[in-house]
Amino acid sequence: MNSFRLVLLLLAVSLSGCASQSNLRNNLPVAEPVQTRFAYEIELGKLNDFMRQDIAGDQLGELLYRRGALYDALGLRTLARIDFNHALEYIPDLANAYNYLGIHFTVLGEYQYAYDAFDSVLELEPEHGYALLNRGVAAYYHGRYEHAQTDMRGYAERDPTDPYRVLWLYLAEHEVDAEQARRNLADYYADIPESEWAREIIGVYLGEQSIREFLNSDFNDNASDNPNTVAERLCEAYFYLGKMLQRQQRNEDAKLFFRLALSTNVLEFVEHRYASVELARMAKTATTNAAN
Question: Which residues form the signal peptide (predicted)?
Fold first, then answer.
């Protein structure tokens, strides 16, 4: 077994619940967490030194935006938001800064601010690569599923062979019409190239293989000599599988999978960001149910 292969660890978790649940929790693949990207830290230090000079106008706005992006990549979200807001003071039409702020507002549950930010992105750049997805995600977590479905469909139609676009569309469509969502997912699945590794996640959704079979497969073979790629793939896999388990009311397994997604430390991925949102929402629901 070569160095990049997943390290199988027996997770010390409770074996309560039905047999299928406890079996699922044993011998789950765990990747080495992604370490802080030192190149980002070095660039951040250089930016801070450079910004001590007399800089103003658009140049300062661009530097503030870049520093905000670095803070965000390092998980320093509050500092990132401060810089994105300051960047917009110098460059009011900086679409990417609005996009970042919209994501942050979504994670914080400030949905109207998120919509305003993403609307600004789309006004400035109608073909922006991610604004439709991000506005759709905001609508999804806000419970506005038909709006989420519309945005996700628009995003997916730009590249229907992208399994991540298809998965997000399915999540939104499932809340509106579960049977139709499954049929649509199967249609998309047929056209996604087998070279797209995340296609296998959709295969699990469609019952082509079990979660255990998927996790025990060599889906990481194309990630040889790159442990960060293994971590990134597991971050994605655990998030989407967690969503599937959540839908099946297997909440303890879902929470475990969301925690495993977070354990990869892939801070820049939407799956990592929203795994924390999922856990917070599940904790809030459990507290509300207990109070009732």
Answer: 1-19
